[in-house]
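Per your request, structure below.
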């Protein structure tokens, strides 16, 4: 108990611990994540279908998907991949989760292929016109991993290729605050099938424009944790970070459905061009 309380009282160094894959590889969590991913009652794991349709329509308006080769990073169940394919794109979806790819392949289309791989580590095919990285996945990565990912995407794109990406914006950072919740079977049994006590602690790192959602799961047999780091950006900081990896911002909006950019935008949507 002392060890747990001591950990609760401390703030880890930014990105010092990563448990990103645990959400999709621990068996119970993987099943729950898939349910959340497909749910139309919440957007905790993916956006609702109506918004996904708007996003893909906006991407098609901006870039013209017909006949383009598209690499969908973190494709999950293929919610975006299938819709981009309906607009005529030849899509390769990449994800490390066997669970979600099994679902995606069960609903596949002729011009969509799925690859089980870690897009930070594994070799991927090259020669794409467009890469997409959606649902702020980029913002969960440590700075060194973000740089590595952008460099890898740059290498996979054709000359003049485009990257479509979204980020957490200033409005989202303004809304986050330090807090802690302790609850029996936190999130209605999301973390384990049996009995457990869940502790959800949010720490805000003001100087880094960063937050950490930390989940302590106390089961009768074991205690374990999930770390969810969230990076936030101003449009200027985002553009500077992209430029370091040889990407130029062509379009910046308040989200990938074309929402106008504002000082308090909760999301930033961007189309970047390889330079």
């Amino acid at each position: 108990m002392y060890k747990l309380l001591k950990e609760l009282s401390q703030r880890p160094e930014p990105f010092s611990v990563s448990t990103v894959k645990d959400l999709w590889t621990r068996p119970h969590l993987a099943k729950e994540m898939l349910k959340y991913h497909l749910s139309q009652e919440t957007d905790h794991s993916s956006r609702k279908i109506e918004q996904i349709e708007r996003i893909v329509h906006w991407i098609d308006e901006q870039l013209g998907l017909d006949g383009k080769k598209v690499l969908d990073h973190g494709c999950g169940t293929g919610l975006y991949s299938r819709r981009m394919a309906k607009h005529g794109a030849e899509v390769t979806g990449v994800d490390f989760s066997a669970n979600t790819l099994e679902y995606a392949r069960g609903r596949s289309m002729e011009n969509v292929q799925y690859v089980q791989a870690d897009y930070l580590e594994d070799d991927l095919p090259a020669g794409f016109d467009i890469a997409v990285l959606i649902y702020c996945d980029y913002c969960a990565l440590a700075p060194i991993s973000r740089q590595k990912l952008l460099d890898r995407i740059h290498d996979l794109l054709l000359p003049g290729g485009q990257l479509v990406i979204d980020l957490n914006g200033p409005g989202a950072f303004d809304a986050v605050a330090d807090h802690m919740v302790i609850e029996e079977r936190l999130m209605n049994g999301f973390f384990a099938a049996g009995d457990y006590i869940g502790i959800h602690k949010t720490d805000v790192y003001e100087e880094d424009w960063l937050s950490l959602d930390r989940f302590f799961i106390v089961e009768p047999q074991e205690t374990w944790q999930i770390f969810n780091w969230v990076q936030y950006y101003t449009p200027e900081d985002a553009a500077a970070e992209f430029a370091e990896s040889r990407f130029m911002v062509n379009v910046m909006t308040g989200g990938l459905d074309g929402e106008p950019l504002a000082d308090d935008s909760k999301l930033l949507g961007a189309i970047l061009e390889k330079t």
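The chain has two domains: 2-25+33-38+177-231, 49-168+233-274.

Regards,
D.
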